[in-house]
Amino acid sequence: MRKREYPLFIIDTSKRDGYPFDCLVCLDRTVGFVARVFQFWQDEPLRDFVEKSKKNPHFEFLTLMYRFSGGGGVILVIEDFLYHFEFNYENKNRVKSLLKKLIKKYIYTEKDRTPREELTLENQIKQQKINIENARENYDEILHRTNVDVKIVDYQIALAEETLKSLEQLRDIQTKISSPHFKQNFNINNNPFNNE
Fold first, then answer.
1. Per-domain boundaries in the chain
2. Span of 6-15, 70-79, 115-124 with lowest mean pLDDT
3. pTM attached to this predicted model
4. Beta bridge partners of 64
5. CA 154 to chain centre
6. Which residue from 78, 82, 124, 170 could staple onto 62, CB 3.0 to 4.6 Å apart?
7. What pLDDT is stored for residue 76 in this prediction?
8. Strand partners, 35
9. What contacts 101, CB < 8 A, 6 or more positions away?
10. In 97-127, which positions are buried (b, 16+ CB within 10 angstroms) versus exposed (e)?
11. 47-62: average pLDDT
12. 78: number of CA atoms within 13 Å, CB side?
């Protein structure tokens, strides 16, 4: 069989209208599949989801869970397979092994997308981008849930975008004044306003 010249996994976090979930695709040539991501930030809704899902006779085979240390976790649920294959012991193990690799890849990618605990300017910029992205993706849901005027939601998103621009400008200024070239050309002794 020809060597695979494309990634084994594809992670889609765009959350389009009608599909507000992260979508993960495994392109394995034998048991390739499409999975949906469910994230829970507390243990109780996670347990409820697991209890309801256990009614599916293939629950153990089609799902994999990763628990967060602070509560909650991530559950991958296989939505569909890319090929028809025999549900034998070997293929079931192959699916479970690929799910484990995929959930690790997803968690690593999410950690890279999500700001760490430090309140650095870079993390503030990253979080603001995520907030704006989430607001755009869930625009209709926000209008429905909050029952506010469209103009107010549009204004809040515009305000968030302007805040992001200000943070990025501040970062650029800090980067510029901390560069060796700037420090070398800005000699305080040559300042004409320095009377000392």
1. 9-113, 121-177
2. 115-124
3. 0.54
4. 76
5. 23
6. 78
7. 92
8. 24, 78
9. 8, 9
10. ebbeebbebbeeeeeeeebeeeeeeeebbbe
11. 84
12. 22
Average pLDDT rounded to a whole number, residues 74-94: 91
User: What does the alpha-carbon distance between residue 183 and residue 176 come to, in Å, rounded to a whole number?
Assistant: 9
Q: How far apart are alpha carbons 102 and 183 in whole angstroms? A: 47
CA distance 186 to 196: 17
How far does the chain reach from its first CA to its final CA, in angstroms? 79
* 33-40 sheet: strands from edge to edge: 9-12, 23-26, 33-40, 73-81, 63-67
Q: Where is average pLDDT lowest: 48-62, 121-135, 177-191?
A: 177-191
**Which residues have a Cβ under 8 Å from the Cβ of 102 and sit 6 or more positions away?**
9, 24, 26, 35, 76
Lookup result for tokens 């949906």: 36
